[in-house]
Amino acid sequence: xLLLCGCSHKTEVRDKxxxxxxxxxxxxxxSVAVRxxxxxxxxxxxxDTIFSAxxxxxxxxxxxxxxxxxxxLVLNPAEIKDKLSVMIKNNRISPxxxxxxxxxxxxxxxxxxxxxELSDILDSSSRKGKIVTRNISAVLNDLLEDDAxxxxxxxxxxxxxxxxxxxxxxxxxLSEEESEGLSWLTGSQRDIYLPVNVNGKTASFHVxxxxxxxxxxxxxxxxxxTTEIKINGSCIEENISENESSKAAAEKISGLCxxxxxxxxxxxxxxxxxxxxxxxxxxxxxxxxxKEIIPRLEFYYSIKIAx
Amino acid sequence: MKPTELKNQTILPDxxxxxxxxxxxxGGSSDLLINEIEVCGIxxxxxxxxxxLSTSTITELIxxxxxxxxxxxxxxxxxxxxxxxxxxxxxxRPIAYNYExxxxxxxxxxxxxxxDGQDRILAFGVQGYDKKGIDEPSGExxxxxxxxxxxxxxxxxxxxxxxxxxxxxxxxKLFVMGDKSQTDMCICYMSDRVPSSLVEKIMDSIxxxxxxxxxxxxxxxxxxxxxxxxxxxxxGRTERPDVLCSKLIEGRVAILVDGNPFALIIPKLWSDxxxxxxxxxxxxxxxxxxxxxxxxxxxxxxxxxxxxVAIAMHxxxxxxxxxxxxxxxxxxxxxxxxxxxxxxxxxxxEIIKEAGLRLPKAVGGAVSIVGGLIIGDAAVNSGLISTPLxxxxxxxxxxxxxxxxxxxxxxxxxxxxxxxxxxxxxxGISLFGAAVLFNMCATGxxxxxxxxxxxxxKAKTMGDIAVREGFRKMQNNNFTVxxxxx
Amino acid sequence: xxxxxxxxxxxxxxxxxxxxxxxxxxxxxxxxxAGAAISVIAQYxxxxxxxxxxxxxxxxxxxxxxxxxxxxxxxxxxFIICGAxxxxxxxxxxxxxxxxVDSSLACSVILAAVCLYCASMKFSALSRSSLIISGIFIFxxxxxxxxxxxxxxxxxxxxxxxxxxxxxxxxxNFCSSGELVMLFILLEFSSADRHKGVTAFxxxxxxxxxxxxxxxxxxxxxxxxxxxxPFFTAGAFSQPFSIQRADSLYMIAFTLLCVLTVTLQLVLTxxxxxxxxxxxxxxxxxxxxxxxxxxxxxxxxxADLSPxxxxxxxxxxxxxxxxxxxxxxxxxxxxxxxxxxxxxxxVQSQN
Lengths: 307, 486, 351
What we know:
The structure holds three protein chains of three kinds.
Chain A: E1 16-26, E2 30-36, E3 42-47, H1 50-61, E4 64-66, E5 72-75, H2 80-89, E6 98-102, H3 106-112, H4 117-127, H5 136-143, E7 150-156, E8 159-165, E9 170-173, H6 176-186, E10 190-198, E11 201-219, E12 222-235, H7 242-268, H8 275-281, H9 290-293, E13 297-306
Parallel strand pairs in A: 1-4, 1-5, 5-6, 6-7, 12-13
Antiparallel strand pairs in A: 1-2, 2-3, 7-8, 8-9, 10-11, 11-12
Helix pairs in contact in A: 2-5, 6-7
Chain B: H1 3-7, H2 15-26, E1 32-39, E2 42-49, H3 55-67, H4 76-86, E3 95-96, H5 99-106, E4 110-115, E5 121-125, H6 154-164, E6 170-177, E7 183-190, H7 198-207, H8 217-224, E8 236-238, H9 241-249, E9 253-257, E10 263-266, H10 284-313, H11 321-330, H12 338-358, H13 361-382, H14 387-402, H15 407-442, H16 471-474
Antiparallel strand pairs in B: 1-2, 2-4, 3-5, 4-5, 6-7, 7-9, 8-10, 9-10
Helix pairs in contact in B: 6-9, 10-14, 10-15, 12-13, 12-14, 12-15
Chain C: H1 6-22, H2 30-55, H3 61-64, H4 68-96, H5 104-119, H6 123-151, H7 163-174, H8 179-186, H9 194-220, H10 230-237, H11 250-276, H12 283-301, H13 306-350
């Protein structure tokens, strides 16, 4: 009998709904939209906390919702840090779940897109080097730093670019070029085509692989931050010389990086690149706060291209 | 009447009294044949057990020479002395002075010659009973090793060992156990390799046996494996003479039982179950690969169904989403809980296996087809059992075949692990695993830990445990089990 | 109890150390790392008198325990507290990490039943199992390191500057390391060359502590302050794949180490209790009930036993062994002097 009834209270795999995406809006109450794997219907629920809201969505569906396979979390820009802390403390949510912040309602965003659409958009933009996907643990870690800011993909209307968020607000949204620059600064790129201008002609520069490294050096009063980007790639067009195309690509990338830096570090005082940690590990400017460090920063780009 | 009581009854000198006593003790058994004849004018009786000896051999080797005896001063004593000392009628010629010895020899296929006025009976080893020929073992199959296995006759088995180990340090001692069965047993060891006192301790254990009959090695095993609460056998078993010889060289002790084609090996180690004759004929890299495959198969056979149940019920995050969705979809219409389903499938398999084993071979095959194909296919099609579950159960069962010597423990542990995994998930599996591990580590008789040489760890032996070294390296190893003694 | 080899002595204590590190709620930082290193070195130095004591001919803790039965009672009491703390750790982990058991109490009772069964085996079963369990743990740690390799950010490690906090961490670490007391008792059962096993244990302990701390610091970054059990969170963060999670597998190592630790504490307690009251029956069952009861009491009252543990550890692993060593040396010298006086007198009388 024990075997037949499945040990009375244990939830069978068929009685579980596997959550793929959660959209959560914070207001007076938390309201969530939950999308499950393999189901078109979007579940909605409200509650005092994000988990009680999910639980309420669960009761409307008749299945126990399982969040261990959560692929994407969409949040509106309120109580971001608190919500992420709660999520991380609940060990059943994968810390590698991706995060998107919407300027509008997160629940509506989840409802308005098809099952895999949001994840696909995120993946494809990341593959193209337009944005950097961030998981909830990395974002929370950034928010817990001194500057309390993190770079996250932000969905502004239909436009997905990188943005800078604080504890409970979007500090600023980056333009497409700035977002691209941030991608070059924060992560490795693989198999992307970069349009470059060589002698007035637009050519495609194929980046097979790239890696980025940040170094800090004390230079008198200034702190010299060098971003070293190593690229393995070449121009596709045959009639353009390798040197010229590489030079153009390097210029283009350093331009994009520079724009990203001036928008985030200079414009928003945000340390979205881990500059402070880099400086601290070199034992420079110990005892100074991030805000005191910012005016002393000087940025250099070293872009090395090998074909 | 107990044979031990017969031991005190000496042979009656008067032949007619003697024969009456023999018939009395035999209780009129039809297979006792008594031929009373006169040799040199002296009354003698030639007795044998029907079917236990060869008629042609007895006629040629015993009857003809007996009838040709000519004595100058015939007397019963002179006749028996003449036969015993001047005629080589057979090579095995014991003498019975009491009825216990008489009946043991008679029923072992000896021809017994009693003379009037003599309190001794001469016995001639002319056994010629029907026996199975030496054949390939039914279990422990191999590709490149020898293809002969033990048979039911102990003396043939002893000769199979001797043919491989011609050194005089191989000792094979025969003794008799079982009041009623009077079964011949043989203890074998290499006198220069066996750990001191191991043989004595084993013999002490055997002497404590007070069984009426010893019909199989299973009757003896509990007496030489005193620890009752253990899950795994600390006594090994083989039906291959080459395997037995390799164990004897390592200083182990073997026990053969007449009427059983298996030999018991003491001590047995857990790692023994993963070594086969083929390993030593294959290239070392391939043998090492196969050995690790077996270790993996052992874990799969015990843990895979329980992990499946635990993951499906409690830890779905361990699977990737694609696999999980396949699992969830297939379980969608299953009427039973996943734990009941898994235990049910495995019990069903055990039933089919038992039916296949006990039935005649022709019908056994049909049972396998009905069980495996028809029931399995019907159960999946009707939605009673999900396909991934059936795959997992089949994989687990097939993996169990890789280490057949552990099948008893695997079968039961697998089901208990499933129940623990179903109730308490991986925590339950780990808890029960810890209990099994402790039980395994506590196993070991005569000071030889079952888990050696893994724990207690002996680096020297890893050449034949973690890998299979080539013979060039192993030849200088001179490993004996004494090194594992704690 | 049977004799144990140096490798088994190492593996038993290493497993206990690994268990306390896994369920440690301490938030590691550079000060903690330095403090732990100092603490391990101090423990190693304090183990020297113990080894010296056992090097004396015919020394037996059973016969020469300071304060006799009262001394043994103190050790038994310490192991009961250690057992209760182990159960408490299990309660804590079962609340913070997903355990498919409805209540933490049920979790502890099931574990206690298994430990009771394991303790009913010979001591050799425990020492042999410890080697296999240590192997499983090292394998798990290797998986953790592999997973953490790509996730670790060395910039998260900020060197310690405050010497005071390093010393504070060292003292705290020392006062929570019950392994030194266990070592003192286990040395009684270990074979010759005890220093080899002891050196191996402290070396392993130092490496393991620093390794786990550095993984936790570099993988978790600032999140380390939010977690109750950094080891499990570090395991969850060090995933080999983006969606699939392997951190439930750390539960296997945790459970095995927990069973081994509690079983060891149970066996040591019951051995000591048996020596104090030889006629007492069911002493193992009694010990486990005491452990569970104390654990429940601690859990309900929220009492912190660290100060008591600290005092007991210093007394049982420092004060008592040192006094015993001094007493032994003094007695030997006295016996030697008496012996030489007696022989001198004999020579005089012969003359």
